[in-house]
Amino acid sequence: MSKKSILITGCSSGIGENAAHALREHGWRVFASCRQQQDCDRLRDEGFDSPLIDYTDQNTIHTGFTDVLDATHGTLDALFNNGAYGLFGAVEDLPTQGLRDIFETNVFGWHELTRLAVPVMRTQQRGHIIQCSSVLGFAYCPWRGAYSATKHALRAMTDTLRIELRDTGIKVVLIEPGPITTKFRVNSIPVSQHWFDWENSPNKEKYEAGLLKRLYEGRGKKDPFELPPSEVSRKIIHALETTNPKTRYKITGATYLAALLRWSLPTKILDNIVVHIQ
Questions:
Q1: How many other β-carbons are positioned within 10 Å of the β-carbon of residue 65?
Q2: Cα separation of 93 and 214, whole Å?
Q3: 267 vs 219: CA distance, rounded Å
Q4: Residue 147 annotated to the active site
Q5: Which residues, in sequence order, are bridge partners of residue 170?
Q6: Across all residues in the chain, what is the average pLDDT?
Q7: pTM for this one?
């Protein structure tokens, strides 16, 4: 029998890279895609199939997916949408174009790739679509409005997709990590610097007191409840290989705590708690 195949996006580091290695160890044929050619080349040197897929470039989404189908003779067992980036700053300081750009990567590109995968899986009458969301897909806190908006949108779209595909044999799963040890925060710094001018913001003192220290001085420091990306991979493997996967997989104590507070406390009380998060 041929190996089961999975396409994973955002495999240059962090959750995607760890998932690629973990699933290969479990016998899957992994297509570990990245948005930059040098990362694809590195993964190919490690023995992976690594198509170039940049969520902001429709051409690479289509050509990358075609490369996968050519290699598998037209089949695909699973898609793990993972590639995304963060953008820090107050909603009022964020130019609307910055919001458009993050939605292009974190939502619209995922939608485009998912729409390519669904017909293949419909024909097979089986498949898994796994979406990497976040604790900020159902919770909220200061300075993360743009990223949280994309993950709230993704959660709504994924829940709807799951219902619409329930009679097709395609299983749709949402992964909801909390703090995971990755380069996510470091990678968000140049993006955030590009899109908002904190020095001329009415929030300047708040940025200096909290957010900037977290971004620049907090690099390399672990958050409370932080777990390694292998914990995400473990849940992905369960979702793929169990007969009846959960619709959502929460990861880290922070995610479970946020869910408990979100659904048990009045909004004004919750506001008084999250306002202190940096």
A1: 22
A2: 18
A3: 31
A4: yes
A5: 127
A6: 95
A7: 0.95
Here the tokens at position 215 are 């971004």
Q: What is the pLDDT of residue 109?
A: 98
Radius of gyration, CA atoms only, the chain: 19
Please tell me the distance from the alpha carbon of residue 206 to that of residue 103, in angstroms, as a whole number: 26
User: Could you give the 3-state DSSP secondary structure of residue 133?
Assistant: coil
Q: What is the DSSP letter of 221?
A: P
**Least-confidence region, from 60-69, 94-103, 197-206:** 197-206
Length of the chain: 278
CA distance readout (Å), 27 to 19, 22, 129, 165, 264: 12, 9, 18, 27, 42
**What pLDDT, in 10s, does the model give residues 125-163?**
999 999 999 999 999 999 999 999 999 999 999 999 999
φ and ψ at 52, to 5 degrees?
-80, 120
User: Which residues, listed in sequence order, are joined to residue 129 by a DSSP beta bridge?
Assistant: 79, 172
**Residue 78 near residue 129 (C-beta atoms within 8 A):** yes
Q: Which residue has the tokens 């898609």?
A: 79
Of 140, 147, 207, 249, catalytic: 147
Give the number of other CB atoms < 10 A from CB of residue 34: 27
